[in-house]
């Protein structure tokens, strides 16, 4: 696989991605012609400022893109220029499915997924039963946030490779609660706790990227090495 960095400037706006709520604003980082996978990355809660330009989302995208993979990011309904209104995580599952459909139509490649916070919770629900998705990475998985508890009992039936990366000081994903989620999930499921990191991996984005890169190399691209990217 050719892992020379993708030529600069190959970032394009996606104009034909639509979901049940209407047009979905999206960006595609174009990959190498011989890419083995396509990747999708989802953003945190839009009611708290989450968009596809979030720093964690951007750094996750850069990690996938360093392997030459095309990477799609999008704004959930009601965020940025995406049409529709926020649906408390219900309709957003359909937004993820629409993005998966677009990637499949565009590339006909198996798909890797990463989501941050709200994006991980919604993405797990969309991607676990979808056979096109071969691996799932949940970054900053929320378990208790805004007085709401998130439940992931469905992970007991999700047997594709799963990576959970959480900050050891994550206020929305207490370590014991995240450990319980991972323990109850079907294997393979791996948890990486980033020491001293909060929910947003402030000052700890590089360890998050290294964990994601190691997972990609272990499960999907064992003969490749990611190109270092800023």
Largest sheet: 8 strands, mixed
Mean pLDDT across all amino acids: 94
Quickly name the level 1 CATH class.
Alpha Beta
CATH topology: Rossmann fold
CATH architecture: 3-Layer(aba) Sandwich
Uncertain spans = 1-9
Q: Helix-strand pattern, N to C?
A: EEEEEHEHEHEEEEHEH
Rg result: 16 Å
The residue fraction in helices comes out at 25-40%
* Total count of helical runs of at least 4 residues: 5
- Assign the CATH superfamily: Alpha/Beta hydrolase fold, catalytic domain
How would you describe this structure in keywords?
230 residues, alpha/beta, Rossmann fold, eight-stranded mixed β-sheet, 27% helix
Can you describe what's shown?
Helix 1 runs parallel beside helix 5 and helix 2 crosses helix 3. Strand 5, helix 1 and strand 6 form a beta-alpha-beta unit. The chain has a single domain, classed as Alpha/Beta hydrolase fold, catalytic domain (Rossmann fold). The chain has an eight-stranded mixed sheet, with helices on both faces. The longest helix is centred in the middle third of the chain and has 17 residues. Helices cover 27% and strands 22% of the residues. It is built from five helices and twelve strands. It is α/β, with parallel strands linked by helices.
Blueprint (SSEs and pairs):
Layout: E1 11-14, E2 18-19, E3 22-23, E4 26-29, E5 38-42, H1 55-65, E6 71-74, H2 91-107, E7 111-116, H3 118-127, E8 133-139, E9 144-145, E10 148-149, E11 162-167, H4 175-184, E12 189-194, H5 205-219
Parallel strand pairs: 5-6, 5-7, 7-8, 8-11, 11-12
Antiparallel strand pairs: 1-4, 2-3, 4-6, 9-10
């Amino acid at each position: 696989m050719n892992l020379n960095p993708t030529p600069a400037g190959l970032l394009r706006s996606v104009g034909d991605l639509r979901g049940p709520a209407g047009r979905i604003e999206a960006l595609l980082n174009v990959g190498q012609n011989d890419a083995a996978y396509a990747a999708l990355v989802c953003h945190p809660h839009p009611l708290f400022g989450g968009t596809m330009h979030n720093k964690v989302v951007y750094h996750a995208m850069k990690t996938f893109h360093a392997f030459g993979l095309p990477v799609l990011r999008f704004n959930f309904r009601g965020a940025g220029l995406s049409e529709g209104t926020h649906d408390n995580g219900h309709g957003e599952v359909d937004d993820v499915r629409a993005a998966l459909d677009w990637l499949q139509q565009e590339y006909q490649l198996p798909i890797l997924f990463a989501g941050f916070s709200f994006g991980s919770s919604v993405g797990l629900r969309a991607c676990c039963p979808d056979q096109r998705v071969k691996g799932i990475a949940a970054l900053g998985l929320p378990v208790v946030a805004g007085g709401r508890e998130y439940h992931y009992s469905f992970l007991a039936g999700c047997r594709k490779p799963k990576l959970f990366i959480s900050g050891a000081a994550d206020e929305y994903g207490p370590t014991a609660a995240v450990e319980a989620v991972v323990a109850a999930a079907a294997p393979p499921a791996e948890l990486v706790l980033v020491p001293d990191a909060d929910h947003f991996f402030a000052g700890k984005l590089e360890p998050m990227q290294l964990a994601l890169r190691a997972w990609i190399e272990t499960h999907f691209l064992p003969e490749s090495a990611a190109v270092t990217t800023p």
